[in-house]
Write a structure and sequence with these properties.
298 residues, 2 domains, homotetramer, elongated, 13 helices, 6-stranded parallel β-sheet, 3-stranded mixed β-sheet, N-(1-d-carboxylethyl)-l-norvaline Dehydrogenase, domain 2, Rossmann fold
Chain lengths: 298, 298, 298, 298
């Protein structure tokens, strides 16, 4: 991929998109950026990106567009239709879809792109905003091999590792949902166990520290373990309503594939309880507060 | 602690006890060993341990006894009564209780010891037989400080780290139950997510590999992730009925403390399903097979 | 309502629609009937109904249309658009929507009707095909009072009782979902308890008989209790995939209203397991078979 | 059974025992009564019963003793040992055990009685205190046929129906646990559905009324439906901690028989949440309040 071959379209300048685009600029890529609410693009313009008014203007025929947006509907709305990026990309163009969306949505989008001669690559990422800033994202990919190879330098500028799941359009989205579900499950499990510790008179922070230094010495347990143990769920790296979205994507995907996931079902209800109690602005790890409520722990 | 001050009593020569006692012998400790079924002590006798017929003969007044047995009842039966180790240990004696048992059982045993002048230390361990062999156990301790200090060299000969949870008799048992519950939860979560992956046409081993190399790069996820992904649950490092015992200890302890643990409840039922299907000889990770059954995956 | 004022449109001649329409004919109402697959209307034509080819032809401007279809999408597809019944009904027309659909769908449809001058009445029914035949349906209604009064004679010709839930478009649908959820819950509860009885050596049929003659002497427990006790789930009165549809309507409706329903979540997963095992043609009470599977009961 | 053949021992004068004993007196039976706290027997003494100080004095050799106590431990404590009723009853004596206890406890007690020549009959009852007063209890029986026949007049004086489950000692207890579990499940299901109704703007009392007049027109749904709909859980007919005891009896019995009961597990955790919040003095239907808490309904 020739960095000078033309600007890459970058669509979605949110908590994740901003540091990701910043790293692309730092890596020498020219960007044409767009966000639904336009003010968000300013920090990128200041670093040399070109902000455009219409989403289709981010891309050039045969070029590359990256989307990192809140949900399936947002990705579909910028992609499809006469003023969408698929029509503009056309033959030889590549849409790198980095949002956490349903595998079925990826399949639908891939089919649309195929009709127009462009290629769809699913490339959802693991990591929170601070990981994005630190170029420490983990990228999962799926889609046609040649296209994945062409866009690989972009991933290297944003993340620390790329895992490929083959050619099926939605495969990387499945892998991403697996991971997000494991994170939620770990939060619920830690919340329950630390609540037991606390009401048995044992220091919950000490339990968290012991477990996350030994058996569970991994990034997810360390980061979320500290939050759950400390009962601290602000500021949000990823808000609770997005957790609901992901739990529902998991349940829908699994349901369509006829896979019962009772733990996923339990977690969805836990998140809904948190939203019923007005925790919309908290981090998704705030699902853990439901355990405290039910155990009557302050 | 003077290694030559008298043999340490070592009670329970099972899958865990054997490598632990072996390491104590290798570390220069003299041992008097006992097992309910006596043949099990032979490998230790061959390395210099003295096998005794009556459990009380493992200990000398004022000495040290280690128990590592299958359940609460077994620990109580060797400890209490006229022919139990508590009566024999007497003033200055220490009982190092390394089994996974209820915090309430530790409290009861500690109270009995106190009446007889001896001291009870809870010191449950994390690790499977291969970790015990490799001196890689993680030891959690609680009980009177002076006694913990005296027996510390024993832990150093068997494990790689000691985490202390203070003076309350059952505190270390609570921490141990927290950890075991997190392991079961991780198994269930992985089982559900890998089932989703498989029925969506994504390679479950690849998903497991990606997740356990990145976000979940920890011993528990790596070991159990590989087993769950490969649907391989024999040979057993820790059998499924012991998993039921632990799930029930968690639920009893949490219930008594008025902490609802719906995920623990769900996992207990999952384990019971596995036992209903005759998986008694499998590893406790075989609870994952229930997910495959329900998803009609071979 | 003048029975001779013009034919009523009747849309959806399935397991429920056929006996309902038959009772309307028997009650003296003229009907213009339509079904997606046209052969189904023949028994009604034989009794005097007029079968039409296009769904809009079932209705006359200012007239009445009844829909009793499989799901939300089906109701929306016959209602909306230029060739839908809403456009044809126009000012003064009434759409009596008797399917089990989401309250939100009723609200959307009511709003569309309002724009066109017609009125939408939600009127979902409780009862299985045999109850429909016996004119024993229970009808729940909501919507504008005048319209409900005008169509009341139709309900009297099809059911044994009408319960009104006020003017809000979706209120009757909420009540219907409450009832369907209680039925599913009762099936799951009976399945679990009868499994316990059986494996404890107690006759499950005898337990079912005792309970449904005393504390649970109600139609739902008697009918489903007999099926669950006998492990007999064919022929289907209401197929398992429809049970999934209803469980998902409950979860969506409750989720949008921020009401966690963990039992509904558990039941959805139970139904999915049944579908994974190929029970699509069985009655929805076949969710009970999942309990037998997990308990390893034949 | 000859009413004049000697007084019947009646042990346990609580919320249920008092009206049951009162009805026996009214039916012409002579009673010797005992309660752990002795004041409770006064209303019965006033009606002709003989209050005794030692529980064994309630019975005569070869006579009949009825126990209706809070839990398994209480029944065992009055039955076993030198000063227990089993030793006193001796050859030809009958112990009619009417408490809700584990089937396994019945088996253990039956075996003890058999050794002493007496007979154990399990005869747990369905009904709340007001049903006991109204002689409307439902009695489930199991045990040796001749003994059941001899004590039958007692049941007729206390209840409206007797259902027999054969000769196995614990069979009637299994049936009783099935029923209690169905009640708890119905409470949870109603609580969830009425919460959905309320947050969707539909009158929860109206939904309850409709359902309990039609599909769920049975005593349990009518009584508890009204309580759950009205959010009124005092005064207690059966307290929440007794609900926990019963849920745990169900789980223990099912677990030992290798029957997974995920709904029972969920309900246990729900009850524990209620107790964590201090609802110990409320009716067991107060488990429904947990649903309101989680949905943030007042």
């Amino acid at each position: 991929m020739d960095k000078n071959a033309g600007a890459v379209g970058f669509i979605g300048i949110g908590a994740m998109g901003l540091p990701m685009a910043t790293n692309l600029l730092a890596g020498g890529f020219a960007l044409r950026v767009w966000n639904r609410t336009s003010g968000k693009t300013e920090p990128l313009s200041a670093k040399g990106a070109t902000a455009v008014r219409n989403v289709a203007d981010t891309v050039t025929p045969g070029g590359i567009a990256i989307t990192i947006l809140a949900d399936d509907a947002a990705v579909e709305s910028v992609t499809l239709g006469d003023s969408g990026i698929a029509a503009r990309l056309g033959a030889g163009g590549i849409h790198v879809s980095m949002s956490t969306i349903a595998p079925a949505t990826s399949e639908r989008l891939a089919a649309q792109h195929a009709k127009l001669g462009s290629t769809y690559i699913a490339a959802p990422v693991f990591g929170r905003p601070e990981n994005a800033e630190a170029r420490q994202l983990v990228v999962c990919t799926s889609g046609p091999a040649a296209a994945k190879e062409r866009v690989r330098p972009l991933f290297d500028a944003m993340g620390r590792a790329v895992f490929d799941f083959g050619e099926a359009s939605g495969a990387a989205n499945v892998a991403k949902l697996c991971g997000n579900f494991l994170i939620m499950s770990a939060i619920e499990a830690m919340a329950e166990s630390f609540a037991m510790a606390e009401k048995c008179g044992v220091d919950r922070n000490q339990v968290a520290a012991m477990l996350t230094k030994t058996l569970f010495a991994s990034p997810v347990y360390q980061r979320y373990g500290e939050m759950v143990a400390a009962k601290r769920h602000t500021p949000a790296g990823f808000k609770l309503p997005l957790g609901l979205k992901d739990a529902e994507l998991v349940l829908k995907t699994a349901g369509d594939a006829r896979v019962p996931m009772p733990l996923a079902g339990m977690i969805r209800e836990r998140i809904i309880a948190g939203l019923a109690k007005g925790r919309d602005e908290m981090d998704w790890s705030a699902l853990a507060l439901g355990v405290l409520d039910e155990a009557a722990i302050k």
